[in-house]
Amino acid sequence: MGRANKVVLAYSGGVDTSVCIPYLKQEWGVKEVITLAADLGQGDELEPIRLKALASGAEVSLVQDVVAEFVRDYAFPAVKANAFYENRYPLSTALARPLIAKILVDAAAEYGADAVAHGCTGKGNDQVRFDVSIAALNPKLKVLAPAREWGMSREETIAYGEKCGIPSPVKKSSPYSIDRNLLGRAIEAGILEDAWQEAPEDVFVMTKAIADTPNEPTYTEIAFEKGIPVGLNGTALDPVALVTQLNAIAGDNGVGRIDMIENRLVGIKSREIYETPAMSVLIEAHRDLESLTLTADLTQYKRNIEETYSRMIYNGLWYSPLKVALDAFIDSSQERVSGTVRIKFFKGTAAIVGRKSVNSLYNEELATYTSADLFDHKAAEGFIYIWGMPTRVWSQTANG
């Protein structure tokens, strides 16, 4: 168990991170706690959170707006990589962790802290993501995780906080644990822990139930430049505005819900419900545009690394050497991935119904079966002879 004089604590305003403040001071002898709340577009009013940290004993309470950086430098690289963890989850929560780790390390340097801290427990993925990312950015910094070590139940944690002057949280009717940011929401606990039970409608906020979606299709065009989303329906948009608007369009049409059994890094399977309207659509649209603009061998090779890339983000290896090297490959692959993809939203579906690019490798005159066909059909016989030669030789040898 580490000790420190001055600590920068990742702070959300919840029970655990609030109790971390007096716990670090009284139990671990920390002299000064600086809290840092990250604005990731989660929609919370952060001024009350800042004030709550001060009331809980923090010497300094910081709030940092990193929404634009979050989308530009974390979400959009994941789009370029078509990063779906286990081919379903677009990593909306996992992508926030390396950014939070980065601003924690930066704040520690600015304030002369000798440690950083977080409120993660020993059961989830986030403890790994924070610890490993912080170690990659500054291996000399101590990382403290009080909630992983204090061994208190939820009720005991609340009681400890009350003893230290932290008000008991208002009782909520919702039994769910929810993590949210601009990219989406992750919902677990309560009835969701029964993998057989359908998720009740009250867990969803960003996406409408199918019955409440429009009765006519909604068409949306997404523009990309070198793999990066840059506009909707002919209008150039900054990254935050683009994700915000696409969240609304897709969510209004019931698109972006995920219900999956997920393999956590610590070896536990968990039932997770996600709402990720914009990210799910952006990755599917980007993948389709690649099929139009990249050669077959590059497309196929890139598909082979996408699961590795997604798994590295999920497992907290954003700052690892392999991730950096894969980024270089992915960036190179995106030089020609510019164009527009048309999406048809209707009753919970997002169908790709059109795509175009000045870099398109699709040649209608070669593909057509009409009289405009320019393909040399006679060339096919020689191609097949050469292509099939290894198979013929094997067959002749095998059959003696």
Radius of gyration: 25 Å
Largest sheet: 5 strands, parallel
Number of separate domains: 3
Total strands: the figure is 14
- In terms of DSSP E residues, the strand content is 15-25%
Shape-level CATH architecture of the largest domain: 3-Layer(aba) Sandwich
Task: Please state how the strands of the largest beta sheet are arranged side by side.
Answer: 3-2-1-4-5
SSE layout and pairing:
Elements: E1 6-10, H1 15-26, E2 32-39, H2 46-55, E3 60-65, H3 67-80, H4 96-111, E4 115-117, H5 126-137, E5 142-144, H6 146-149, H7 154-163, E6 177-181, E7 184-188, E8 218-225, E9 228-232, E10 235-236, H8 239-252, E11 257-263, E12 269-275, H9 277-293, H10 296-314, H11 321-333, E13 339-346, E14 349-356, H12 364-367, H13 379-398
Parallel strand pairs: 1-2, 1-4, 2-3, 4-5
Antiparallel strand pairs: 6-7, 7-12, 8-9, 8-13, 9-10, 11-12, 13-14
Helix pairs in contact: 1-7, 3-9, 4-5, 8-9, 10-11
Organism: Tumidithrix elongata BACA0141
Binding site for L-aspartate: 121, 125-126
Catalytic activity: L-citrulline + L-aspartate + ATP = 2-(N(omega)-L-arginino)succinate + AMP + diphosphate + H(+)
What does this molecule look like?
With 400 residues, this protein is an alpha/beta fold. It folds into three domains: 6-163, HUPs (Rossmann fold), CATH 3.40.50; 177-294 and 336-356, Argininosuccinate synthetase, chain A, domain 2 (Alpha-Beta Complex), CATH 3.90.1260.10; 364-398, Single alpha-helices involved in coiled-coils or other helix-helix interfaces (Up-down Bundle), CATH 1.20.5. It is 41% helix and 20% strand. It contains 13 helices and 14 strands. The chain has helices at 15-26, 46-55, 67-80, 96-111, 126-137, 146-149, 154-163, 239-252, 277-293, 296-314, 321-333, 364-367, 379-398; strands spanning 6-10, 32-39, 60-65, 115-117, 142-144, 177-181, 184-188, 218-225, 228-232, 235-236, 257-263, 269-275, 339-346, 349-356. It has a five-stranded parallel beta sheet with strand order 3-2-1-4-5, sandwiched between helices. The protein has a five-stranded antiparallel beta sheet with strand order 10-9-8-13-14. The protein has a four-stranded antiparallel beta sheet with strand order 6-7-12-11. Helix 4 (96-111) crosses helix 5. The longest helix has 20 residues, at 379-398. It starts with 5 loop residues before the first strand and ends with a helix. The mean pLDDT is 91.
